[in-house]
Amino acid sequence: MENQGREALRHQHRPENIARRLQQKPRPPKLADFVLGAIDGCVTTFAIVSGAFGAGFPSVVVIIMGFSNLLADGFSMAVSNYESVHTQLEHARAARRTEERHIDLVPEGEREEIRQIFAAKGFSDDTLEEVVATICSDRRLWVDTMLAEEYGISSVPAKPVVSGLVTFLAFVLIGAFPLLPYLLQAGPVDAKFYLSCALAAVTFFAIGLCKGWVNGNPLLRAGARTLLLGGSAAMLAFLVGFLLRGLVPVS
């Protein structure tokens, strides 16, 4: 197995394969948007389920409250994520305009910044000057380097609409799982709640497995970590519903 993996890596690192891979434009990561929407959607709907169970509401109330909040909160979170990513994009654009202006007004100062940045990386003497000359000979490369090194801004362009859409879809699709048992016509409310708890736990664990698989981390550890974090939030929602049961009695 190890030899097969090493051979696959060698194949990926052949010159022609490296060139083909580097020619492809990098894509903004969507896993964070998916995980954000999925976990929050599952927690939100399970909070409705646990709160309604603690208050003694019938299944029809859980369905109405659950799906109405699922859509409304999912849209709200998608808009929030859109605005967050859009703000980052605007910050990157403003930083780019600043660096463009600085290069026009004080090119020697900007060139010295490049020099000191790469001197700190271990370059020196003629090698350092060659690096500085190469970078500063290409204006776009010059600006991109300054954005990455001085501002920590990635060269991968952000896509606010895509981020918002991924968050919304993950929120609605994954967040609907804890509500599925309540769509069943038959069965006691207690059984539906316990089945909802099981679905929420499986959902959190599956999200963790997805993260672990994408990032190359141990699957069981990643699944358990997300289950612990998501389950803690879900438990908090259950405790709130249970405590409010005594303060707001339902006839």
Automatic annotation (TrEMBL):
Point to the regions of Basic and acidic residues compositional bias: 1-19
Record localization: Endomembrane system
Matching Pfam families: VIT1
**Bilayer topology term:** Multi-pass membrane protein
The GO cellular component terms are: endomembrane system
Q: Which keywords are on file for this protein?
A: Membrane, Transmembrane, Transmembrane helix
Please give the superkingdom of this protein's source.
Bacteria
Cite a single GO BP annotation: intracellular manganese ion homeostasis
Span-the-membrane segments of this chain are 31-49, 55-72, 161-181, 193-214, 226-248
Give the matching InterPro entries: Ccc1_fam (IPR008217)
Gene Ontology molecular function terms on file: manganese ion transmembrane transporter activity
| PANTHER family documented for this protein | FE(2+)/MN(2+) TRANSPORTER PCL1 (PTHR31851)
What name is this protein filed under? Predicted Fe2+/Mn2+ transporter, VIT1/CCC1 family
Q: Which organism is it from?
A: Microbulbifer yueqingensis
